[in-house]
Specification:
The chain is mostly helical. It contains 4 helices and 4 strands; from the N terminus they run αββββααα. It binds zinc ion (2 copies).
Length: about 120
């Protein structure tokens, strides 16, 4: 009687192998290779795959959207910071004595303007 029951308990995927676990989801017997521990339960690979597909679907749809939005905002802030610091650096440069002197006696450009031929055809 016992042997008959053991023979019945064969792996669903491997009929030649003895079953060691009963999947609580599909109520089938599986060998050690075909079951995986999931949340302190021994479930078969098929049920585990369907469980993971169900649990991963929402997170796969939500996370890329959040990641893209975060990247957009982060890159915008980064670009703004770069241009802002760049602008601050430019604003700090022109009020130096060196530039003020050059603007005072800048005769180079005015001379060139004056020597331009006025009688052009
Ligand atoms: Zn199962
Ligand atoms: Zn098996």
């Amino acid at each position: 009687m016992n042997t008959e029951q053991l023979i019945l308990k064969r792996c669903y995927n491997h009929p030649s192998r003895e079953a060691v676990a009963l999947c609580p989801r599909c109520q089938r017997f599986f060998c050690r290779e075909c079951v995986t521990e999931h949340e302190s339960q021994m479930i078969c690979a098929l049920c585990l795959a369907s469980l993971q597909a169900r649990s991963q679907k929402p997170s796969r749809e939500i996370f890329p959207v959040i990641g893209k939005a975060f990247l957009c905002v982060a890159s915008f802030i980064l670009t703004w910071l770069i241009f802002y610091s760049f602008g601050l650096g430019i604003a700090a440069i022109p009020s130096t004595p060196f530039h003020a002197q050059n603007l005072g006696n800048d005769s180079f450009f005015s001379d060139e303007d004056a020597s331009l031929p006025e009688s052009s055809p």
